[in-house]
Amino acid sequence: MTTADASKAVGSPIAFDAVLFLSFGGPDEPADVRPFLENVTRGRGVPPERLDEVAEHYLHFGGVSPINRLNLEMIDSLRGELVSRGVDLPVFFGNRNWHPMIEDTVVEMYRAGHRRVLVFPTSAWGGYSGCRQYNEDIGRALSAATAALPEIASDPMLLRKLPQYWHEPSFVEAFGDAVIRAVGQLPNRPVRPRLVFTAHSIPVAADRSDGPAGSGGQLYQRQVSAAAAAVAEKAGYGTEFDLVWQSRSGPPQVPWLEPDICDHLEIVATQGAEQVVVCPVGFVSDHLEVVWDLDNEAAETAERLGLGYVRADTVGTDTRFIALIADLIDRYRGGEVPTGPTSLPGDDAGRELGCADNGSTCRAVCCVPARRPART
Ligand SMILES: CC1=C(CCC(=O)O)c2cc3nc(cc4[nH]c(cc5[nH]c(cc1n2)c(C)c5CCC(=O)O)c(CCC(=O)O)c4C)C(CCC(=O)O)=C3C
Ligand SMILES: [Fe+2]
Fold first, then answer.
1. Domains of the chain, start order
2. Is the CB of 129 under 6 A from ligand 1?
3. ipTM of this predicted complex?
4. Would the annotation count 134 as a binding residue?
């Protein structure tokens, strides 16, 4: 590949030669917990009390987050799926907050000769934490790699983030089946279990600022809500479901999306519900936010309230989810730019949400807050 070819790469259809599976990261041993949490919360104003509390959650599991093992399992399945399709692309692993760090992975990929990389993020969503921050990770990693390997300036690298996938049929089907399986684990009663979806809370102000102009923002909240509705429909619940939030962080005086899952269980119990199925639609694997906040805290709350409780599986290594990742890679590995409507009211057609090159912004309605700043 010549330099001239490479510099034309952005926007022109040139085949990709590797995949980067990009995730959040988590500690692998107790000594990792504090430095990991410092990486996550650097400059974000998360109070020390909250960090102590979250450190305890990790230490409860021996200081090991399940997230790295789960990601490696997904990568293993993905490699198998790509091989079975005859797609000859190696899959590398990098994280935002813990080893293998994306900065190191990008250097490793470049040294191995890769110049065109499709990035699959383990977040299905738009908004800052779910999308823009992953683009920031890609940009930061590329800068770090360029500082370490000056040859990148003349023989550049293209890292293209794949589009958001919260609306993809296979994502919805895999979660829909997980809900059906969870319902099947509860004793048969005249009234079916209440279906409650949950996703990571974010600050209300952050949620407001992203989304199509005139829509009032709330891109993340509206996507989660649309995905929950689609999963509920798939699971035979029609429009009967609740959507709540979990794992809020930040200082207590700052408003985050509510209600919290545990507060909501109290309400559900006073309304006479006997059983609940909780579906963590906001996450793709059973990492710490799921096994602590749902399998410990929410499960205990339900028990205290006398509610039958089952948590539905995340999509993880469900064959349909792995096939979806392979589909996304297959669809775009030839170099065509992901375009299309995103089925959110008020959104225009164009480059699909989340798809961006080298950490740049994807679309005005996602990466760049759509509303004009208030006049002063
Ligand atoms: C939208 C969203 C997702 C879903 C999209 C995606 O999957 O990316 C997500 C995923 C995750 N969040 C995770 C862990 C943490 N999130 C924190 C803090 C925060 N999350 C936020 C949002 C989200 N987070 C926000 C706005 C903060 C406040 C500070 C900041 O703006 O950054 C903190 C700090 C301590 C605290 O909880 O206060 C931790 C430890 C793990 C790994 C679990 C494991 O180790 O197994 C995963 C997958
Ligand atoms: Fe988080």
1. 3-165+319-357 (3.40.50.1400), 169-311 (3.40.50.1400)
2. yes
3. 0.96
4. yes
- Please name which ligand lies nearest the alpha carbon of 202: 1
- Condensed to tens digits (0 to 9), the pLDDT of residues 209-220 reads 888 766 778 999
**Does residue 65 have a known ligand-binding role?**
yes
| Ligand 1 close to Cβ of residue 68 (< 6 A) | no
Asked if residue 289 belongs to a known ligand binding site, the reply is: yes
The answer to whether the bond into 35 is cis (omega within 30° of 0) is no
User: Which atom belonging to ligand 1 lies closest to the Cα atom of 122?
Assistant: 7
Please give the structure tokens belonging to residue 168.
């993809």
Token match 């790509």: residue? 82
DSSP-derived letter for residue 101 is: B
- Does ligand 1 come within 6 angstroms of the Cβ of 130? yes
- Three-state secondary-structure class, residue 275: strand
Identify whether the C-beta of residue 139 lies closer than 8 Å to the C-beta of residue 359: yes
According to DSSP, the β-strands at 158-161 and 116-121 are parallel
Measured CA to CA, the distance from residue 195 to residue 185 in angstroms comes to 14
Residues with Cβ within 8 Å of residue 143, at least 6 apart in sequence: none
pTM of the entire predicted model: 0.94
Q: Can you list the residues of the chain whose pLDDT is less than 50?
A: 1-11, 372-376
